[in-house]
Amino acid sequence: MHQPTRPFTRRRFLLQTAGTVAATAASRAAVPGANETIRFGLIGCGGRMRGLAKQFGSIKDTRIVAVCDADTAHMDAILSHLGKSAQGASPRRFTDYRKLLDRDDIDAVVIASPNHWHALQTIDACKAGKDVYVEKPVSHNIWEGVQMAAAAAKSKRIVQAGFQNRSDTGLRRAFKFIQDGRLGKIRSVRGLCYRNRSSIGKRDTPLDPPATIDYNLWLGPARDQPIMRPKFHYDWHWIFNTGNGDIGNQGPHELDLVRWVLGDPALPAAVQCFGERFAWNDAGDTPNMQTAWFEMGGVPCIFEVNDMKTTPKTNASPAFKSIRVGIIVTCEEGEFRGGRGGGYVVGPDGKERIRKFPGDAGKGHQKNFIDAVRSRRVEDLRAPVREAHRSSALAHLANLSVRTGKHAPLDELKKALARKEELLEVLDRQTRQLAAWKVDLDRTPYRLGPSVQLDPDTESVTGPSPAAQLYKPDYRRPFVVPELT
Fold it and tell me: Is 0.85 topped by the overall pTM?
């Protein structure tokens, strides 16, 4: 319905750039010197890129030489925002990221486009000889993450994920403290994502994209569906076609903390989830209340998403043990509570704070990527794409469960959770909150998902289940994510 001015197929792009890729790889065989400028292209110039652009632009011996977005208004805004951060450069503008990748004067790219674009743009950047910093979640689904990790390994590119918590000085100290056994064995881990979000609304007729957008290039691999939300940008997060809900928006940061504190184990063999989108009656189709559970590294884990305020009249979300966004690590001799910016340990009584770990919110994360680009050592990265893919996959597994689940009356849900006291406690808190919203759980019941089975070795969903059918989507041509494994 909205076509680009000049058709530019994936096949044509790869054919045209084959020589350039080889030349780029040869020209970058030498490691950049300590004072050699690393030239960046920015892909996806919305709100998150504003912070990233300023952070990267302020690092010594880096230069932003190109910006790209399907929305020209976003490019106008990012260039205005950059100001002196671009270090006096006049970045080139592109609406098609493939043309940006075709240039040999770009060493690395920063990707902060919508979730459904992360995989294809990262893979194409690796093929074009560019190093990549890609925002969370690194993928839109598990299958894409597997291909992204393969692309990075095969191309020998440095690919860092925007899991900046991995660089938080307080969390690095705290997790070493825990992993050294200073609190005894880990008994359980709980991740929390409580945000006070609101309804996105709903239109009676489809929304036309803004005139500044090349909609074909914005949509890319996603299906061309009517847009029934009033706001075009950002609210794509709450539509499964382009986003992953809050478990795949804010949640990957805390899911990554869960894996990190456990020593980055393999993915769990099974994940189950219950949840629903309650009360808002809007255009979103992702849950605003969602609870997943799994065992990883031999440790039981629970992850909660709650985007609803405590009551419709308040402007605050609930909290659990004083934590809204973060993790709780329960050990034999105490409990760590915290998240971005650090945390603290309480003793066995659960009250007295016996140790604090103040952090810096991971402000050195972008510099860590630059250092690895210079060293060419993937092991120098704090959030390599392989581990970031697995942390993102936890969110995708939870979504596969709830999306393929069935509505369950409250009594049936309680019966299914009867042997899981911790989950019954979560359900009790949620139902009291929903009662304050006057949600009738007979008319709008929870959706209880099946246990999604995974082969941790191949990282693929097993069995003839509906979840397995969603594992690898059908892409809109020509924007097809290639199979590399």
Answer: yes
